[in-house]
Amino acid sequence: MSSMAKQTQERANLLQGTLDMLILRTLVYGPAHGHQIGKNIQRTTNDFLQMQHGSLYPALHRLERRRWVNSKWETAPDRNREFKYYRLTDKGRKQLVVEESQWKRMAEAVARVMWPAAQES
User: Fold this and answer.
1) Is the pTM here over 0.70, yes or no?
2) What mean pLDDT, rounded, does the chain reach?
3) For residue 120, which of 18, 37, 69, 113 sits 20 to 30 Å off, Cα-Cα?
């Protein structure tokens, strides 16, 4: 694999891992269907992150395959329509702790490069 292809793959993995972490974190608060998950992430980030179906649903399916979430079709309490509700599993809760720790280490490393003077005090 060329170095450019490797960088592209690493960036995709970073973005994918970040999306996975945000979904897992959203589900800490309880079951939600895909649209609710996307809206929560969008609202929480003050519209900075907007979840596209082409990213969100493949991520949810990936998390299901890893058994970090499970899903079940249920009728929405306020509607006469079924939605696929996703729930965080015990395995997903453990993975979220790992993801948050890795994210924090990465953010701290980037901050040391971006704002070195702030680290000296």
Assistant:
1) yes
2) 87
3) 18
Q: Which residue has the tokens 């490393």?
A: 109
Cα gap 94→87, rounded to integer Å:
14
Report the alpha-carbon distance of residue 43 to residue 3 in Å, rounded.
Answer: 37
Alpha helices by DSSP H, listed for the chain, are 3-27, 34-44, 53-65, 90-114, 116-120
Dist. CA 101–CA 11, nearest whole Å: 19
Structure token digits, residue 112: 């040391």
Tally the residues of the chain: 121
Cα–Cα distance list, 3 to 6, 12, 35, 60 (Å): 5, 14, 37, 30
Q: Which residues contact 99 (CB under 8 A, 6 or more apart)?
A: 17, 20, 21, 24
Cα–Cα distance list, 83 to 53, 71, 72 (Å): 15, 10, 8
